[in-house]
Amino acid sequence: MAKIHVSTTINGEPTEFLCDAGDSMLDALRDTLGLTGSKEGCGTGDCGACSVTLDGRLVCSCLMLAAEADGHKVETIEGMASDHLHPLQQKFLESAALQCGICTPGMLIAAKSLLERNPDPTETEVRFWLAGNLCRCTGYDKIVRAVMETAADMREAAR
Amino acid sequence: MSDIRYLAPHTLDDAIAQYAAADGAARILAGGTDLLVQMRSGVLKPSTIVDVKKVPELMAVEETADGGFRIGAAVSGAALEEHAKFGKVWPGVLEGLNLIGSTQVQGRASMGGNLCNGSPAGDSVPALVAAGVVATIKGPNGTREMKVEDVPAGPGKTNLKPGEILVSFTFPARPKGSSDAYLRMIPRTEMDIAVVGVGVSLTLDAGTCTAARVGLGAVAPTVLLVADAAKALIGSKLDDAAIEAAAAACSAACNPIDDKRGTIEYRTKVAGVLLKRATAIAAERAGRA
Ligand SMILES: Cc1cc2nc3c(=O)[nH]c(=O)nc-3n(C[C@H](O)[C@H](O)[C@H](O)COP(=O)(O)OP(=O)(O)OC[C@H]3O[C@@H](n4cnc5c(N)ncnc54)[C@H](O)[C@@H]3O)c2cc1C
Ligand code: FES
Ligand code: FES
Predict the structure, then answer these.
(1) Which CATH number is associated with domain B5-119+134-171?
(2) Hey, which residues does B137 pair with through a beta bridge?
(3) Domain ranges of chain B
(4) Does the structure show a pLDDT above 70 at B279?
């Protein structure tokens, strides 16, 4: 069957690619576009390692068809740092909020999406927002603390 | 998965024509949080996927002329949560929908997908049943309306005919003193499948319950409307005797499976417990509405 031609915007860059109808967005990002920051932990929506935003909304790229990106905007972990790291990335490094790093791109994308909506989340709100991001290394505490501290730093910087 | 066709029509008529023209192995795609998992595990091998998220009728959130709401079948939980008014009028429906999966899943999961997937444990369905919501369905032979409780036909099955698409859900106008609530029991605190789910919608007038509906999930092959539970509540002041009778009616309606998440005895008992708790929450909200 003929390939589908997709015109989309990825991390602000107009991007075109070809895919099969059954390909997931995660397949297209990793295998076609070489954006391997998004990880496949499960492929079934459970782990959040493949998290991206679609028109600003947090989704699992493994549960989205690549063809659905046509005409929409996708943001991945590759777009998070500018010429310097995003405050969340910097804080994750400083506070050892990662070990193997497989969950980290998804955690960062999800946390960024939370802080854009809620700059002053409670710990409970952070834990619920990140409930779909599984980490088998850190025990979550350092991640949650890093998100809370980044939120405080970003509020301070915005004053 | 390379021999699949992907179609993303922009109008309802095109969606219906394309879905009807494809053979029986065509599937509607809303949020894909059930469909893509089933395709990946090999349970489903659709020949054609009709993505309905570009069809305006399936993505609209509107207030109707009589003061109710019409919600497109493919509207995501996250989008509905952001609506200024819906969650104030139907907090129980929204809490059921928002219990589905994680933030990521919420970004995509729809009430139409939850209902059409046909799981007896679908978390938005008991509250939709309790709310007295009507589903509008359109197919090659025209439009028809069906009560939400009549849509599921059994696990994984619906009463939609070949080629029919669920377009929207119509919520009735709410009299003053009305509210609703949904509670589910899961073994974990997040990201799990309901062992029992109860939706209660009621209206209070000077402390007397003048209208009530109860939806019960995960304890039978389909989500149930429990008319006897509603009957026990209506006309009462929601005193202990009325609530005990409604709880007993919920337990009596159960015809559950026995599995590792809950035995028959446990599910039957919890159905009554959740009815009591959900009624208390709905009544407290109705007192403020
Ligand atoms: C990690 C994870 C956690 C989950 N947790 C929960 C949970 O806690 N509770 C729960 O209830 N569910 C849960 N689910 C299941 C799923 O997210 C829900 O059932 C969701 O509401 C499905 O909606 P959707 O829009 O993604 O449906 P889709 O996957 O797009 O569709 C589901 C089915 O319905 C059909 N369909 C969809 N829309 C229509 C329509 N308009 N007309 C006709 N047919 C249609 C599709 O063809 C498909 O067969 C979970 C899923 C995942 C991946
Ligand atoms: S790979 Fe997408 S949620 Fe796990
Ligand atoms: S750091 Fe290893 S999974 Fe989170």
Answers:
(1) 3.30.465.10
(2) B144, B166
(3) 5-119+134-171, 178-288
(4) yes
DSSP three-state, residue A19: strand
User: Which residue in the block uniquely carries the two structure tokens 């570009």?
Assistant: B54
Q: Which of A27, A47, A109, A134 to mutate to test the pocket of ligand 2 (most atoms within 8 A of CB)?
A: A47
**Do the domains spanning A4-79 and A87-158 agree at the CATH topology level?**
no
Give the separation between CA B199 and CA B90, rounded to whole angstroms: 11
Report CB contact under 8 Å: B105, A24.
no
**Residues in B touching A112 (Cβ below 8 Å):** none
Nearest residue in A to B33, CA atom: A63
List CB contacts of A71: < 8 A, sequence separation 6 or more.
A7, A8
Task: State whether residue A63 sits within 8 Å of chain B by CB.
Answer: yes
Residue A76 clears pLDDT 60, i.e. is over it: yes
- This model of the complex carries an ipTM of 0.96
Q: According to the CATH classification, is domain A4-79 in 3.40.50.150? A: no
Q: Judge: A48–B102 Cβ closer than 8 Å, yes or no.
A: yes
Residues having CB within 6 Å of any atom of ligand 2: A 40-43, 45-50, 60, 62
As a whole number of Å, the end-to-end CA separation of chain A is: 56
pLDDT tens digits, B103-118:
999 999 999 999 999 9
Closest-CA residue to B93 (of B164, B16, B179, B4): B179
Cβ atoms of residues B149 and B158 within 8 Å: no
Among the listed residues B202, B257, B197, the one whose alpha carbon sits nearest the alpha carbon of residue B234: B202
Identify the CATH number of the domain defined by range A87-158: 1.10.150.120
Mutate to test the interface with A, among B29, B55, B104 (most CBs of A within 10 A): B104
The letter for the amino acid at A69 is A
Q: Residues A32-74: pLDDT tens digits?
A: 999 999 999 999 999 999 999 999 999 999 999 999 999 999 9
pTM of structure: 0.96
* Sheet strands (E) in chain B: 5-7, 26-29, 48-51, 61-63, 69-72, 134-139, 142-147, 152-154, 157-158, 165-171, 178-185, 196-205, 208-217, 224-225
**Nearest 10 degrees: CA dihedral of B116, B83, B200, B136?**
-40
Contact B91, B181 (CB under 8 A): yes
